[in-house]
Amino acid sequence: MADVNRGNRPLSPHISIYRPQWTSMTSILTRITGNALMLASVLIVWWFLAASYGEDYFNTANGFVTSWFGDLIMFGSLWAVWYHFLAGLRHLYWDSGRGFELDVAKKLAYGVVIGSFVLTIITAVIL
């Protein structure tokens, strides 16, 4: 028999009662950084192609890449590289069948986020 109250039940998880976890947010952020890295790579390829087309074209591309906005994009890309790398290491650890306990998974998520910021700062200072 059909359930007559089907339309009265709330959706699950409802947006007003669902509290995002660190593991779900880091998973979403991994996907976002992967796509952002693809866009940043297009900018870098444009810069290299401009170098092969001639001095005028290269000066235009180089002016954009070395501007404050280009520097911001490159710094964000540096963070995205470190974040994506550490998230990949976390997934390799999970592929071994370990780290699925809630407290361990939360610590790994903290480690990925904090580690990516620390490694970005270290890399920016050194380079």
From TrEMBL:
Belongs to the cytochrome b560 family. Part of an enzyme complex containing four subunits: a flavoprotein, an iron-sulfur protein, plus two membrane-anchoring proteins, SdhC and SdhD. The complex can form homotrimers. It is found in: Membrane. It is a multi-pass membrane protein. GO terms for molecular function: electron transfer activity; metal ion binding. Coiled coil: none annotated. PROSITE patterns: SDH_CYT_2. This is Succinate dehydrogenase cytochrome b556 subunit. Heme binds at residue 84. GO terms for cellular component: membrane. The chain crosses the membrane at residues 28-48, 68-87, 108-126. One of its GO terms (biological process) is tricarboxylic acid cycle. Membrane-anchoring subunit of succinate dehydrogenase (SDH). The heme is bound between the two transmembrane subunits. NCBIfam families: succ_dehyd_cytB. InterPro entries: SQR/QFR_C/D (IPR034804), Succ_DH_cyt_bsu_CS (IPR018495), Succ_DH_cytb556 (IPR014314), SuccDH_FuR_B_TM-su (IPR000701).
